[in-house]
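Input chain follows. Return structure tokens only.
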Amino acid sequence: MCLWFDKDAEAAARFYSEIFPDSMVSAVHRASGNYPSGKKGDVLTVEFTVAGIPCLGLNGGPTFKHNEAFSVQIATDDQEETDATGMPSSEMAARRARAAGAKTRGLSWQITPRGLTEALAAGGDEAKRAFEAMMTMKKINVAAIEAARRG
């Protein structure tokens, strides 16, 4: 996955690698000479992993902006993992979206319990109940989603 940033790919990669388990920055590549929008030594690309997903951060300039049409989804197994995988509260406070959606460093993130995904995939009344329960939540409640699935 390649993620386009204006000029802060390294800061974003380090931020994400501190938040999510199985994450790290593995390489930072710098310009070997001056170029039209930068100078020798500027960070060009950053190789990093977020929750086991290999990523490349590209400092491509201001031409393209992140938007909600793309988000990274982190699947969780239970309430403890759902809560622990969330963004720091200082980042979340100003950017809290419905349920478990968040936007940090320009990227949208979804922290999604596997039980919700499974309920939606099941379809029918089970999916309807789980979806309706989730839509009322400010914070994901795994037990409430599971209860809704069962009816």
